[in-house]
Design brief:
7 helices; single chain; three-stranded antiparallel β-sheet; globular; seven-stranded mixed β-sheet; 10 strands; alpha/beta
Length: about 220
Amino acid sequence: MGELTLRRRADPETGEQIYEVKLKDEYLMSSLFTVAEEELATLGLAAAHGTDLNVLVGGLGLGYTAATALTDNRVGRLVVIDALPAVIGWHERELLPVSAQLVRDPRTSLVHDDFFAVVRQAPEPGTKPYDAILLDVDHSPTFTLDPSHADLYTTAGLTSLARHLAEGGVFALWSDDPPDAGFMATLSSVFDGATAHVVDFANRLTGGTSSNTVYVATRR
C-alpha cells in the first residue's frame, strides 16, 4: 500500500510528544486524536454480554482501541490482527505510549495477518468464536485504504464476518465519515440493533470540534 512512517514530534506550544503515522503522503492517525478509537472499544464492549470475553481487534495502529479494550476486566483474551509487520514491531519495541500496556498484558496476542482475508474464510473447526470484533482499518466503508477491503462492507462480506462471532456477539466499526444511511441499511440486513454513534472531540489543530462515527451491531 506504500511507504509507512512513524514519527514523533513535540508540540511547539506544550512540549507534548505527539505520535503520527503516515502512509505515503497521507496521515493515517495521530495521538492528538484518540477519543473515537477509544470509544470504538468502549461502545463495542458495552454492547457485549458475559465474562471472559474473547475479543478481536482489526487494525493495531497506535494501539488505543486495543488498550482501551484491556481496561474492561471482562476481557479474557484479546487478539489484534494487523497486516503491517512494522506496526506490530513498533509496539513490540514499546515505541508508542500504550505499547507496554499492550504487550505486557498476558491477554494480548499481536498477529501479523490480513484481517479481511481472515474473516472472508469460515472459522477453523473448534475455534472459539469472538464475543466482539472491533474494526479500525479503513477511513470509512466507502473510503478504503486498499480496494481489496471494499467487499467487507457489503451484505456478503458482513455475513462472512458474522460467522466469526458468537451468538449475540458484537461487531463495531470506526469511520471517519458521518453516519452513512446506505451502509446502515447494509449493516441492518445482516445484524440486529445497528446503531451509528457520532463521537465528537476537540480538534486542537482547528480550534473547533470534529467527529467520527462508531457503528455497533449484534449478530442475530
